[in-house]
């Protein structure tokens, strides 16, 4: 009885741990981190700032006219 209990718990821990380890990366958190680190290394190598002053290109933004009709 004790051996069966020990083996059952051991198998459950091993198979459960293996199952949890190989679950897919939901939300792509690991990928997002790797991509951010890759972009940081690329920008540092090129001598660019990590974050641009303007996130969007100001020449492409169309603002409404100041006339309110």
From TrEMBL:
Accessory subunit of the mitochondrial membrane respiratory chain NADH dehydrogenase (Complex I), that is believed not to be involved in catalysis. Complex I functions in the transfer of electrons from NADH to the respiratory chain. The immediate electron acceptor for the enzyme is believed to be ubiquinone. InterPro entries: NADH_UbQ_OxRdtase_ESSS_su. It is found in: Mitochondrion inner membrane. It comes from Xiphophorus couchianus (Monterrey platyfish). One of its GO terms (cellular component) is mitochondrial inner membrane. Belongs to the complex I NDUFB11 subunit family. Complex I is composed of 45 different subunits. Interacts with BCAP31. Keywords: Electron transport, Membrane, Mitochondrion, Mitochondrion inner membrane, Respiratory chain, Transit peptide, Transmembrane, Transmembrane helix, Transport. This is NADH dehydrogenase [ubiquinone] 1 beta subcomplex subunit 11, mitochondrial. The chain crosses the membrane at residues 6-24. It is a single-pass membrane protein.
């Amino acid at each position: 009885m004790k051996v069966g209990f020990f083996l059952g718990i051991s198998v459950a821990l091993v198979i459960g741990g293996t199952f949890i380890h190989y679950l897919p990366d939901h939300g792509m958190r690991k990928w997002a981190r790797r991509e951010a680190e890759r972009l940081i290394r690329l920008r540092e190598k090129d001598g660019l700032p990590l974050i641009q002053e303007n996130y969007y290109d100001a020449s492409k933004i169309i603002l409404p006219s100041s006339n309110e009709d």
